[in-house]
Structures are given as structure tokens and as C-alpha cells.
Fold this sequence. Notes:
Helix content is 46%, strand content 18%. It is an alpha/beta fold. Helix 2 (40-55) runs antiparallel to helix 11. The structure holds beta-D-galactopyranuronic acid (GTR).
Amino acid sequence: MKITRTLAGALLASVALSGAAWAExxxxxxxxxxxxxxxxxxAAVKSMGEDLKAKSDGRICVEIFASAQLGEEKDTIEQTQxxxxxxxxxxxxxFNNIVPETQVPSLPxxxxxxxxxxxxxxxxxxxxxxxxxxxxxxxxxxxxxxxSRSFYNSEKPITSMADMAGMKFRVMQSDxxxxxxxxxxxxxxxxxxxxxxxxxxxxxxxxxxxxWPSYDTSGHFEVAKYYTLDQHLIVPEVLxxxxxxxxxxxxxxxxxxxxxxxxxxxxxxxxxxxxxKVSEDKxxxxxxxxxxxxxxxxxxxxxxPVYEKYVTDDTLKSMVERIQATE
Length: 327
Ligand code: GTR
């Protein structure tokens, strides 16, 4: 007993002596993600947290709440605006209605490839979009990958745009995606991610659209086994911070957060590339029917009214032109 007390005393003294290196977390940033533990976005924020803790001598920590524990994306965005959640990793889609600039990289077929998307998002246009989050009481920290999104359904293989006529697809909660699906001749139902599985299973919708890792980890492939690689969206994902939480940090700590977030992007991209392959192999092995050779031209042409409706002001127009001109 005595010995223990002595030991504890010695330990306490050494903590005091070694100072910051032994400090407890002074600030714990609560971070939300809809995906399960192990998903590349969750792993990337985890690595950011470890990096941040090390660089702040143990003062700033990140606690991740995966699997939508804090709610569905639209709700967690509101909670982040209110400062209830500090960090949030979300697709750009659910920001479309509140941060107009996020509509540009969410436009169907705006990027020619993932490389094109990286070039744009890593450059000045990406920075303009991160800066635009300020208008929604948020701080845009960094972008992550979301691969390309394609349609899947429980009914039949879609081999052309005509096959989509009258079908019902879930989209993320963004007006632009509702119009995108309508322009393809189908019906769109915006709904939270967590409701999609049962909605397909019970026939409320015929299908949805997403990338390989989400199609896999959500289990949607179990209930919607036809996947058509039309790749209509290459929409990046983003890590944002609540402006309220941000303002509580010193400028030095803000710089640490920003840098740790930026540094997690290459980590995420590597994890993402590996996960895409793993997920593709898994759903193929499960017997999903994949339509690879689809003529994308009619899909691209059908998007003209969507661009006309959403790319209206000069800021967005200029962004679209600059993206298209990016080699
Ligand atoms: C995933 C994305 C999530 C979420 C989801 C959805 O690809 O990583 O953030 O937006 O799609 O469709 O709701």
C-alpha cells in the first residue's frame, strides 16, 4: 500500500517534471463519421488525431464517433454548426444546399478522372471551396476521396439510360442530385444513408448510387445486386470543423489542426485505393452483376439542364470553366 503510494507520488512528480510531453488531453475534439470503424475516412481522421496529439504534446485529442453514432449527415452538419460536434467528415453532397460552392465539384461528370479531381481540389479552386465553408459557420480543413459513384438497384441490370425510366433511386440530401436523377428519366428520393438498406429491401426505392467501399460496407449490395458503372459523380469528401470550436483554439493550435488535417489526406488516399479494390473483390465474389461497358455519352448530355439550373452566378460559372480548363 505504502509502496504503491510512493510509486504513485513518484509518477506524479515525473509527470510534473516532464511537463507537456505527459500532459493530459486539454481539448478533446468530438468527430463524427457515418462510416464504420476501419473505413478509410474513419482511419484517416484517426491518424490525424494521433498526429495532432503528438504535435500538441498531448494537449489536443480527437475522439471519433463512427457508424453515425452522432446522427445522420444532415443532422450532424447542423450540430457542427452549433458547436455540439467539433469535427465532421462528410461527403460534399449534403453541403450543396448550404455552401453553394460545394455544388461545383458535386456536378455530374465535372471531373474527367480521379486524377483530374485531385489536381483541382489540391489547388486554388479547392482552397476557395474550403474557404466558402466560413459562410456556414464552419471551417473547411481538407478533402478526402470518395471514388466515383454509380447506380445500383434490386430490379435489373441497367445497360442504358433508357433502362432507368421510372425507376426510384435514393440520393443524398441535395436538390441538385434530385434534378440529376430526374434528368436521367428516373425518380429521386433524398433520404439519410442509414435508411437506404431497409428502403431497398422493402421496395420503397429500387436502388441508390454510391462508390465501391460504401456499396460494400453499407451492405447495400446484398439487397441491390445490379451495379452499373456509369460513374456520374466523382464527388470529394471533406473534413470540417465547427467555427465555434475553432474560435476556442489559439492561432497556434488552429495551425496545428489545419496541418494535421492536410497531412491526413495522402494517408486517406492510399487507404482509399486499397479499400476500393477490397470492396470490389468482395461484392464481385458475392455475385453482384456489374455492367461495365455503358455508353456514358447520353448520361453526360442529359446533364445540360442540371448545369443550367445550378451554375448560375459568376463565381460558380468561373469555377466550372476553370475546372474544365484544368489539364
Ligand atoms: C458515402 C459517403 C458518405 C455519405 C454516403 C451517402 O460515399 O462517404 O459521407 O454521404 O456516401 O450516400 O449518404
